[in-house]
Amino acid sequence: MAHIGDLLAEMLARSGIDYVFGMPGGQTTALHDGISRRTDRIRHILMRDERNAAYAADAYARLTGKPGICDVTVGPGANLLPAGFLEAQNASIPMIGIIGELPLDWLSLKEKGIASQGFDQLSFFKTCSKEAFLVPSVAALPELLRTAFRIATAPRPGPVALIIPHDIFDADWDEDLLKITVDDRSARIPYLRSVAPPSEIDAAITLIKKAKRPALVCGGGVHGADATAEVTAFADRLGGLVVTSLSGKGSVPETRAYAAGVLNPLGSLAAIELIQEADLIVWCGSKVSQNTGMNWTLPKPDQATITIDFDPLEHGRTFRPTVALLGDVRECVRALDAGLGDSRAQANPGWLARIAEVKARCEAEKAVEMASDQVPILPPRIMVEIAKRLQPEDVVVSDASFSAGWISGYIQAEQAKRQFLFARGQGGLGYSVPGAIGAATVVPKGARVVTVAGDGAFSYTVGELATQAQYNQRIVNVVINNGKLGWIQLWQEIFFNNVQSATLETQSMVPGYAAAAQALGLKGIYVDKPDQIAAALDEAFAHDGPSVVEVRIDDRATPIHSFKRRMRETDAKPRPRPGTVYKLRDWKVSPDL
């Protein structure tokens, strides 16, 4: 039977899409039938939750540059997608959601679920996507799919909703419809490249040559433009500081002497300290978000600025740049590098020495945590052991909250590539386990995907371990379990007199994530002493399939430097009286970081 689902599967396969992530429903079964006929070119990964389908598609897109494709059915399937759509929207990740819908002639019956599971899906997805379309006819579908690819991959990339009514999905189609194909230029990002005008490039070069303490801040746009090689070459020539956002980690190798790590309250203390001393900051593919901009205290009034971004609305959003370079990151950086030529920026000879000095001091402080034999375990000790086992083709997927800080601060990006995935578009819990499923479809044979999540985040998507087991994916899930929502616990302790609403367990109920993993068909390993970590990770990395390594950690450990300072101050003082409320006027970190 040739139906529209068959046509859609064929067009996706011809566009280079090799995996679709989702959960079928009656309205979308035709798509699954179409995919089942083409398993040599395209496969479907059955997820346990539609929200997680979007997260898996997101990770697939970040690693391939192709739009991540997720599919859901009408109603309850559709209304779970927005979390993943918003992550992709805010992080500029190309995605296409194929969404089932009631038959077209049931339009008047959608409201309030008169027709089962009906609601106004088009309006709903207009609020959380780059664009949303309701397919009105069989003839319109190929052109709308082509348009969805173009919009999803064009600057600035993002998610597109393609809503297909049931009667259209099941309808017959004519071979002539295959004459409309997806443009190969929009099959992956970047769709098109452009470069800023020569006059602006020249102005930027003049600023760089004049700077004594230049700094380069690399955001996720460096990876989106596939520009790590060019950015690293430019950074080598710049003679200054290089830091990244979480999403930009790996823009340059962090083994370089000038690289000071991730600029974020969760990240590198050296990066936070040194960026204040720069006299020029080049914001490269960075939207200067709240956390990378340190609550928009950066740039400082006396710092000259250059912004490089293909989105015109990003230039001047939170500050007026001295020079704004509107264009593709790779092309603009190439132009800057060529313009500098053999003459290095006239940086203060002491700038690189200052960078080395601050880095050495901060690394010495970190080394104490990384070597700690404390029980309960400090997370940096775990990160050291993970880093020892990572191979060049492995991928690390971070969950939100403290996990992002432990990874970014204690596992070095040794290569200029996208090897670390951080869910920073929304920063919501529950990304790592489904994200790893998408990543595992992409990594080369023999490579590993490693996730790091707190117990709170891991609880969100523990059901997707069944998916990892079903497809026997080579994923090592590391759960750092402190029995609490760590961020919320410390926030409450510091500012609200230790209000206890962040506890995830009691003495009579202690969740066993390693045991749950074993019940779902994975290898499960529990660790509560530092000298057990190495053996546990060796066993997990050697396992031919997915595993969970659950590590009991200190419930007051935090990667946030201001939290560490405040905890020390709190420990040194008498506990506040009940009802004491701290003033937050000097607070520099979002409570939802």
Automatic annotation (TrEMBL):
One of its GO terms (biological process) is L-valine biosynthetic process. Keywords: Thiamine pyrophosphate. InterPro entries: DHS-like_NAD/FAD-binding_dom (IPR029035), THDP-binding (IPR029061), Thiamin_PyroP_enz_cen_dom (IPR012000), Thiamin_PyroP_enz_TPP-bd_dom (IPR012001), TPP_enz (IPR045229), TPP_enzyme_TPP-bd (IPR011766). Residues 201-336 form the Thiamine pyrophosphate enzyme central domain. GO terms for molecular function: acetolactate synthase activity; flavin adenine dinucleotide binding; magnesium ion binding; thiamine pyrophosphate binding. Residues 567-593 are annotated as: Disordered. Coiled coil: none annotated. One of its GO terms (cellular component) is acetolactate synthase complex. Residues 403-551 form the Thiamine pyrophosphate enzyme TPP-binding domain. Residues 4-121 form the Thiamine pyrophosphate enzyme N-terminal TPP-binding domain. Residues 583-593 have a biased composition (Basic and acidic residues). Belongs to the TPP enzyme family. This is Acetolactate synthase-1/2/3 large subunit. It comes from Gemmobacter aquatilis.
